[in-house]
Design brief:
Shape: extended
Structural class: alpha/beta
Number of strands: 23
Strand content: 15-25%
Distance between the termini: 87 Å
Number of helices: 11
Helix content: 10-25%
Radius of gyration: 38 Å
């Protein structure tokens, strides 16, 4: 039996990470190219005649101590065989094992290096691409995703490499990729920490066809566009997930500057888009580097009715007033864009619906990943106007537009999701305390009677008009108590992937929500009202038998059994559902941008 070549085995140090070559060495070792059923050993019978089927192989024909070639190959491919291995890390690994069975004399270290055309080393704690990777003379595809690589040198890349994928690493700069880089067709740098792409202006990137820069920290649209124009062969580009992708002119400016693009953010670039966005890239310097986000809250349904005394009566105090509103969190470094509304319903100011949280994020949310910034942006709770409960649902018709200049903070907030809450606000209303002054006018003491006792001045009360109940305007309001009825964390990541508007159906507590059971109309239902604007309740039609009213139908059921009460109590509660939209402004053409400029500065364009 010929022993296995152990010159390639190395002991990695998991505490300090490993190089790409160290991981490759371990993976090749797992192939067992010099051990059973591969390689040259006592288990092989090379002199035995070749047979067509396994059924023809018997102990009479062959020695029991040896295995036929077909049997060894079957052990490599059979799903129930203990020698079948997972070879997803390279599409060439399985073919190499088959070759180690058919022609084991060819398997040497040099042959193995020249054999591989592709390598996929994913989540193996790789921290560097060392110079030993240059031994792969024919390697064309190298994938090192989800590792911890923070720097890379072009001189350590295999000479025939055409595709390099480094998704999910810790790269911040590309300064070492300006020289010694092989002529790559694809470069994947998604989900890193890259802030600038100036290094891509190097002539070594002229043959680049596909580029992935998604989910980085690129926020300067002008710089990125000017840099990528030097890539004359670029046809596919991914930039979604970057802060700059939230700018209204993002897609149009990129398409207009890179006329050769076929696909942007996995969406085909059409001829109509190229025509509609023509000339937009010229205005990238003057376009405000801010995002416009519009929030629409339509309604909330499923809130159970609460018993309370809401009518002002002279003998029942305090009056309990309950209002309901929807609350959502948002970065605090934004400004409210004034909406055109009627004079009867003026737009709310920022202080009307802002509430700074004492602890904006939970401790779990404040945990930082390695390489991430340590500072956490402040989060503000925004809310709708509080409205009364209604059995058909509480319709807010709330719409607010925000302008955000810090694009990275907004990107991180959208990526982490928005927290939606339904809040009940309870306020106690009490009558004002009567005033009983102890002194007379001008600070003098009140006059005394003959007995020596002072006369009490009593302020006469104005007689209340008959037929009118006291209003709540003159009552004293207490500090409101707020109760969160339900909370829901909604995924808004689609806004970073190119979608302009997303509709959120938020299940904020209550019973189980089954999609399709709640009507998702945005408009409130038609309600009949009287001349004073009050809701008209539907009249109950009593059942009539022989022209007489059925007294049994109008009589309250006082004989309800205990089983009936238990069945009513066992009825599951209704789900609390909030319907709302999030919209990120995107200009669909250059003319739309010009209309926007004329609206702000009519004389800015000639």
């Amino acid at each position: 039996m010929v022993g296995r070549d152990t010159s390639m085995s190395m002991v990695p140090d998991p505490r300090n990470g490993r190089s790409a070559h160290q991981v490759y060495t371990q993976l090749v070792k797992q192939l067992c190219l010099w051990e059973f059923p591969c390689g040259i050993g006592s288990w092989r019978n090379s002199a035995a005649p070749r047979v067509d089927t396994f059924s023809a192989v018997t102990l009479k024909d062959y020695d029991a101590m040896t295995e036929q070639l077909e049997t060894l190959q079957h052990l490599v491919h059979d799903s129930k065989s203990p020698w079948k291995l997972d070879c997803d890390w390279s599409k060439d690994a399985l073919a190499l094992r088959e070759l180690a069975i058919r022609k084991p004399e060819l398997i040497t270290n040099l042959f193995i290096y020249r054999w591989f055309r592709s390598l996929r080393i994913i989540d193996e704690n790789v921290i560097e691409i060392d110079e030993k990777m240059l031994q792969f003379e024919n390697l064309e595809e190298l994938t090192l995703s989800v590792n911890h690589i923070d720097n890379i040198s072009g001189y350590n890349l295999p000479p025939k490499l055409t595709s390099l994928e480094l998704f999910g690493n810790r790269l911040t700069l590309l300064s070492n990729l300006t020289q010694g880089v092989p002529p790559l067709n694809h470069l994947g740098l998604g989900s890193n920490l890259i802030e600038s792409v100036v290094s891509l202006r190097s002539p070594c990137w002229n043959k680049l066809v596909s580029l992935d820069l998604s989910y980085n920290r690129l926020d300067d649209l002008t710089n990125v566009v000017n840099t990528l124009t030097s890539l004359s062969n670029l046809r596919s580009l991914l930039l979604f997930g970057n802060p700059l992708s939230l700018i209204p002119s993002y897609r149009g400016a990129v398409i207009d500057a890179l006329r050769g693009l076929f696909s942007l953010d996995d969406v085909a670039v059409t001829a109509d888009e190229k025509h509609g966005y023509r000339g937009l890239s010229k205005y990238t310097d003057s376009i405000p580097k801010e995002a416009r986000v519009t929030v629409n809250v339509y309604w909330v349904k499923g809130i159970p009715k609460q018993e309370s005394n809401t009518e002002a009566t002279p003998d029942v105090y305090p009056i309990i007033e309950k209002k309901y509103y929807v609350q959502y969190n948002f970065p605090s470094n934004m400004s409210v864009v004034t909406q055109k509304e009627s004079e009867s319903n003026p737009p709310p100011t920022l202080t009307d619906h802002l509430e700074e949280t004492d602890n904006p994020l939970d401790p779990e949310d404040q945990a930082q990943l390695p390489g991430e910034p340590q500072s956490q942006p402040s989060i503000t709770n925004l809310r709708t106007k509080g409205l009364d409960w209604d059995e058909d649902g509480i319709f807010f018709s709330y719409k607010e537009e925000y302008a955000v200049e810090d694009l990275e903070i907004l990107r991180d907030h959208i990526k982490s999701g928005v927290k939606i809450s339904v809040v009940e606000e309870i306020t106690m209303l009490n009558p004002p305390q009567p005033v009983t002054p102890s002194s007379g006018k001008d600070g003098r003491k009140s006059p005394r009677t003959k007995s020596g006792k002072s006369k009490k001045e009593v302020v006469p009360e104005k007689p209340a008009k008959k037929g009118k109940k006291p209003t709540t305007e003159d009552l004293v309001r207490s500090q409101p108590d707020r109760v969160v009825l339900g909370t829901c964390d909604m995924d808004t990541n689609e806004l970073l992937e190119g979608k302009q508007t997303i509709r959120l159906v938020c299940h904020c507590g209550g019973g189980d929500y089954i999609p399709g059971t709640v009507v998702l109309d945005t408009e409130p239902p038609h309600i009949e009202t009287d001349k004073k604007g009050k809701k008209i309740k539907p009249k109950k039609t009593p059942s009539v038998v022989s022209g007489k009213k059925d007294k049994k139908s109008t009589k309250k059921d006082s004989t309800r059994t205990e089983e009936d009460r238990q069945s009513i109590e066992a009825t599951p509660p209704s789900p609390i559902i909030v319907l709302m939209d999030f919209n990120v402004l995107k200009w669909s053409s250059t003319s739309e941008y010009r209309k926007y400029c004329r609206k702000l500065k009519p004389k800015s364009l000639t």
